[in-house]
Structure formats: C-alpha cells, structure tokens
Amino acid sequence: MAAATGERAPAFTSEELEKLVDGVLPQYALLYGPPDQQVSAYQKIDIWRAIAKDVRTLGVHNRRGTHCRKRWEDIRRGSRKTAEALLGMASQRRRGATCQLTPLMSRILAVAYPDLDGRMRTSQQTQGAEYRHILLS
C-alpha cells in the first residue's frame, strides 16, 4: 500500500489479479448488470471490500476495495480494447498473423462482454488457416 509520502501502490501481482478476477466474475451482475439486477451503492462497497479481503489473504500487499475496483476497471477496459484490436486485424485478414488473448482476458470477455467474446469465437472459426485467433483457455 502507498505510504503517506505520496508513493504509488505496488503493481498487482499475477496471483492478486487472478484472485481479483475470481472474486469479481461471480458478482458481476450485481456490480455491473442491468439495473434490475444491480444492488445499492452501499452493497457494492461491501462487495468490493469482500473482494479486497480475499486479495489480501494472499499476503502480498494490503489492497483496499477502491484499489481493487479501479484495477478491475482497468483490466476490463484493456480486455475490451485488445479484443476490438484483434477483431480489426481479423477483418483485414493479415496473412500469418496470430492474435492472442491471455486466459484471464478470455474469462473477462466471456462475462463482461459476451458480444465481443462471441464475435472472437466466430471469427476464430471462420478464418481457417489463412488467419487464426488463438484464444488461450
């Protein structure tokens, strides 16, 4: 955690990111779903605190709910941008190009952006040998 002197908090480790994603995905509808499925702002804060508590069990850094929420939003945004870039490359049919999503990004896309995930899988199936997407699972 950042000191009072204005130092930045350390980057999330891969284990912390896995734990964060494992905590958010089951709660995704409550946090970001349609309005009829979402919970109140206070309940969302409690959910983020519980997720942060799970991340802290790794004993790496003392993460707060706010840090976890901001990091999740960064990961989610980055996953979407990567998927859109890969789809753009697929539409150009570049020969010999191989596109990769990390297993973590694939899991996030499946829950947070099912429309993009479906288009990625469809693109992967229709491109054949000329162009292929590798979705690591």
Please characterize this protein's 3D structure.
- Pfam families: Myb_DNA-bind_5.
- This is Myb/SANT-like DNA-binding domain-containing protein.
- It comes from Pleurodeles waltl.
- Residues 8-82 form the Myb/SANT-like DNA-binding domain.
- This protein has helices spanning 14-24, 28-32, 41-56, 65-92, 103-112, 114-127; strands at residues 98-101, 132-135.
- It is mainly α and 137 residues long.
- It has one domain (14-135).
- It has a two-stranded parallel ribbon with strand order 1-2.
- Helix 4 runs parallel beside helix 6 (114-127) and helix 5 crosses helix 6.
- The longest helix is centred in the middle third of the chain and has 28 residues, at 65-92.
- The two termini are 32 Å apart.
Q: How would you summarize the topology of this molecule?
A:
Elements: H1 14-24, H2 28-32, H3 41-56, H4 65-92, E1 98-101, H5 103-112, H6 114-127, E2 132-135
Parallel strand pairs: 1-2
Helix pairs in contact: 1-3, 3-4, 4-5, 4-6, 5-6
Pfam families: Myb_DNA-bind_5
Protein name: Myb/SANT-like DNA-binding domain-containing protein
InterPro entries: Myb_DNA-bind_5
